Amino acid sequence: MRLPGSRESKKASRNPVEDTLQREKEANANARSNLDTELKKIRGELHHVTSEKDLLRVRHDALTNESAELQQQLKRLQKNLQDANAALQQEKDAALNIGRSLKQQWEAERNELMHEMDEMEINLKENAQTYEREFADWESGKRQLEVKLQRAEEASEGLKRTLQTLQQTEHTLQGKETKEESERHRAAEQSLERQISELQDEIEARNKKNRRGL
Q1: Which of 24, 156, 165, 171 could cysteine-pair with 192, CB 3.0–4.6 Å?
Q2: What string of DSSP letters covers 29-48?
């Protein structure tokens, strides 16, 4: 036995329009619930996508910064390489210039030394020829002096013998002419002795000069 006013009695008492409205209301509620669920799902997916987008943006920014740094490093390395190449080229040019300068200096010194050696050789030949001529002249002069000395010594010996003869004759002959002749012979002998002494000194001086020249 059901009490009056129960759900069944109320349900039985509603008209079809109310039932239709009720069903539509419930359908709308279910649809709304489904939409809310879908919306939450979409929001969740959107949040996930947004998070991934943010993460990608962060990664992109990091890669962009890293790429910029790498570009800067590359530019610095390229600049350093250019500077190093320029410095190396300068060193090469300097080395080539130094090499050319040293070669020119060496060639100039070699030519100067060769010129000096040629001049020295010429001087040596000229000195040798001069020495040979002077030695030949000295030998000739020495032979002439030796001949003069020999002749003077022979003349001196002759005068000495003549003087001795005159001295012997002077004791027997007391004439004036004999004394004068004796004095004349004595003066000639003294003159010859001086000439002999001078010739001997000249020969000795020539010998000393020749020894110093050797």
Answers
A1: 156
A2: HHHHHHHHHHHHHHHHHHHH
